[in-house]
Amino acid sequence: MFSSRLPAALQANALSRAVSRARREGRAFLDLTLSNPTRAGITYPEGWLLALSAPGAAIYEPQPLGLPAAREAIAADYARRGVEIPPEHIAVTSSTSEAYSLLFKLLCNPCAESVLIPAPSYPLFEHLTALDGVRTGSYALDYHGRWYMDLQSVDRQWTQETRALLAVSPNNPTGSILTTGELDDIDGRCASREAALILDEVFADYPLDEEGRPIRNTGSGPARAALTFRLGGLSKSVALPQVKLGWIAVEGPAHLVSAAVERLELLCDTYLSVSTPVQLAASALIASGARTRELVHSRVRENYHRLGSLAGEYPSVNVLHADGGWSGVMRIPARASEEEIVLQLLEEDAVLVHPGFFFDFPQEAYLVISLLPEPDVFREGVHRVLERVDA
Q1: Does 220 share its domain with 368?
Q2: How far apart are CA 12 and CA 20, in angstroms?
Q3: Domain presence at residue 8
Q4: Cβ atoms of residues 126 and 136 within 8 Å
Q5: What is the domain count for the chain?
Q6: What digits encode the pLDDT tens for the residues 171-194?
Q7: CB proximity list for 218: less than 8 A, separation 6 or greater
């Protein structure tokens, strides 16, 4: 009696069951899968969330695309990154996940059309597309000292039903940032095939190179040939996942941008999901969040370099290069399956990591490690992992 958009079987995987069992039994472990900055020992400014109690929040004035003040604050934050987006080309959402759902409704007919998603990447995309009745094709990210988009696999996966290509820059978990050339190539492909480009930039503020600048740049897009949707949100940009504010910024040919914004307004008006308090507080949260962003950035950059330094003592382990983001990827000897290795790490070494197959790595063996944990936890957890996997 239930929709086929949901998985037929809802049982937890072996690692999730093992984690639940450890917690029930009161067994402590070091969590190197942490993705919640509010649990990472990051110091938030005192009174930061008081902006949510602004007096104007008591008055409800529904604006489908978002209150002007919120859209202006988001446009100003793009300008901080060197990207010029007019406020009228921005739609406010409750989250990046909701932004994806709106775009899938905007671009794809259900059960008939598709989007291309990267692999390896975050597994949420398959769930989001399924819930909106959208098909997927998967293009490859290949590693050759750095991660590169396999444009030939894009062409192989493209069909007449493809309506959008989804790119994540920096990608989660590979940390890869699109080169200007890659962006130009997929922009041209999408434009020539009357498809849209969805560019997820939620980790754009977290480069991992020594100078603190992105090694590769996605650039700005007034000359963008394809209809392009940039996605962002407070969850990552100021480390506030609990506040629930995301956005869609629209770029590309003027006639397509106008048509897309008009249709997004209808979609957003149907749901009106974003609260008034968070929209009124957006400017203050973005401004005061700069310090927290710096703390998170410092944490993930230091842990990334610490990971490389620690792994350098173990010849059989290779830390893959990442341009940005909150994750590190280790290639390890495939002495057992990834599932067996991560279960052994949890049960015998009391440390939790993600296996590569969670993110559709093409072969084994890879481990994905969060760069968010506090330094002492991170150092000890990585040491236990390295001692276990080195062969």
Answers
A1: no
A2: 10
A3: no
A4: yes
A5: 2
A6: 999 999 999 999 999 999 999 999
A7: 169, 177, 178, 180, 183, 199, 201, 204
